[in-house]
Amino acid sequence: MRRVPWIALGSLALALGVWLAGFLAPFAGFLPGCAFKRFTGIACATCGLTRSILALGQGHWREALHWYPALALLAGAAPVAALWDLRRAWRGEPYPALPASRALRFGAWLLLAGIWALQVARGI
Amino acid sequence: MEVPFAASARALMRPATAFTEPLPPLGRALVRMLAVWVPLALVDALIMVWRALQAYGQLRQSGPPDWLERLSGADPEVLWEVFRTLPAPPTFGRIWPWLLLIVPIGVLGTWIHHAVWDHTGLWLLGGLKGRRGFRTTLVAEAEVLRIAALGTLIGLLGFVPILGTVLSLPLMLLAGYLWLFRGFALAARHGCEPWRGVGATVVHAVLLGTCALGLAVMVLMLLRTAP
Fold first, then answer.
1. What is the pLDDT of residues B186-199, one digit of tens each?
2. Contact residues, A window 9-68, toward B, CB-based 8 Å cutoff
3. What's the ipTM?
4. Count of domains for chain A
């Protein structure tokens, strides 16, 4: 039984969304900015994400990497994930369950905290 | 005969016992969600677009509001020039047929979006112990979004002049509760503690919603309270 490549389709939709967002770059100055940063003075976990998306939409990869490295890296890895998903769907294999390992969950939390810390440390 | 949405209201008031029935098949849960939520979302979108077109038309005539001048820090004359050259809005009659297509896609997209991020949040909090997979999350989300459609119905009150402004805070609180309410369905269907389910929705909000949701809420509030 063939399966739907949801990750590949989702990546395609996101890529389209990011490309369209690139056209909004001239209006970026009208965005209200991060409320968290305004109140606390430090970047929130997603500070720089909008600017990174707008840069990606214009094909400015270096700029996107500067504003939100995790997004640029994720975007770079998306084609690989999409190819893996297409292969999985073609073979009719189900998605593997998320690992029950506590260490992996802890690692994911550390990664998220690390991304935030990086944005704060760089003063984004 | 039971009052429409009475079961949804009961579920919202007693979330801990709202999902004790056997898990329905995915197809049935999805159809029931679409049957309840799509018409309400369509009415909501129609009113919102109509209000947005009105607000846009007024904006073109009256120029930028003071808060936008202060917020953007742009030269007021440049800002005025931008507003003067804004194109005329399309008529409501040209837009509404598109909503018949966009709203169902938006509803399905919201369902999948919530499922993906809540499932990830649940995994991060160790709530996937039962090994009941992503399909269970999809069913739980369909069930809970059908119930939460009551919030869309109540939210229509936000469009009523004056009353909408008065109700803006209670409606925001309701929206917040409905967001967390998904966690009870996730917990019940995955067999974990409610705090993990509710926590998953919070993780979802923090991970993805900090900026986008805040911006969307601000725009929605402006549209609803616009004269």
1. 999 999 999 999 99
2. 29-32, 34-36, 44-47, 49-50
3. 0.72
4. 1
